[in-house]
Amino acid sequence: MTILxxxxxxxxxxxxxxxxxxxxxxxxxxDNFNDYYPVxxxxxxxxxxxxxxxxxxxxxxxxxxxxxVQAALADIPxxxxxxxxxxxxxxxxxxxxxxxxxxxxxxxxxxxxxxRHRGVRHMVYASSSSVYGNNAKVPFSVDDPVEHPISxxxxxxxxxxLISDTYAHLYRIPLTGLRFFTVYGPWGRPDMMAWKCTxxxxxxxxxxxxxxxxxxxxxxxxxxxxxxxxxxxxNPPSDDGxxxxxGSVAPHALYNIGNNQPENLMRFIGLIxxxxxxxxxxxxxxxxxxDVPRTYADIDAIASDLGYxxxxxxxxxxxxxxxxxxxYRGL
Length: 331
Hints:
Elements: E1 2-6, H1 11-22, E2 26-31, H2 39-47, E3 56-60, H3 66-73, E4 80-83, H4 92-95, H5 97-118, E5 122-128, H6 152-171, E6 175-180, E7 183-184, H7 193-203, E8 206-209, E9 216-217, E10 220-221, H8 222-233, E11 252-257, E12 263-264, H9 265-276, E13 281-284, H10 300-306, H11 314-329
Parallel strand pairs: 1-2, 1-4, 2-3, 4-5, 5-6, 6-11, 7-10, 8-13
Antiparallel strand pairs: 9-12
Helix pairs in contact: 1-8, 5-6, 7-9, 7-11, 9-11
């Protein structure tokens, strides 16, 4: 298989690329290496893949630029797409809405058009647990209504799902959207809780904890996320008129990928404290606009269909992350 992978310099993207390359696939990465967080981290992630250089191509381009993408890929064949590139972050979307429109809306459409005209066998794309908003029902199921997102980021991800369903209906492209639940682990993002908290604890800086600590997240270790992505990639939805996960009769499915185990934020921080051997300085803050008090993934659909079973509790994942973090920062 030859796989086009957008966002391959990102957290989930680089880990997915490594897994695909390790099993012998040819991978073409497209990433614009933007400065939402330090570009050096993105380049370090790509450098990890040097051992696979014979089967890896890295194209530095903005996938929301249709002309640039078409030119860059004109002579490169591929039969599947894993579209993980996006402008991430709920809070950042409050200050930089146009970045989300460009990357998450226009960019998603550019990749769908690429899938359409290349006749790809399957396109897997990243959605988010944020689409569930303040859903009162837990755990969150792909069959739940998701028509009231409470952040622009969530709204763009829900829009991606709707646009994808339209393309699957019109052009019969096999598509699968993945609603990721709070991903953490080695090579993670500096804007996420595991990194921010570990960095602050080790440097003796205070950390802001929102909603006065009354929050829970379905923290999911990166290895479990990647296992789900690969399982989905290998199993495109059929175009047989049956109802798919998420409710579509087109060849378009939706799955949650989470740990199916929400954890209180204070317990998460406590494990970081234990792994660092230091106490956190906590500044409790009220809930931030666009944020949600809890996430909880119902993974029955992906477990039943594809045998997905996360194996890493935070008691194992947090120490692994802290150990990596110390090594990466030379601490």
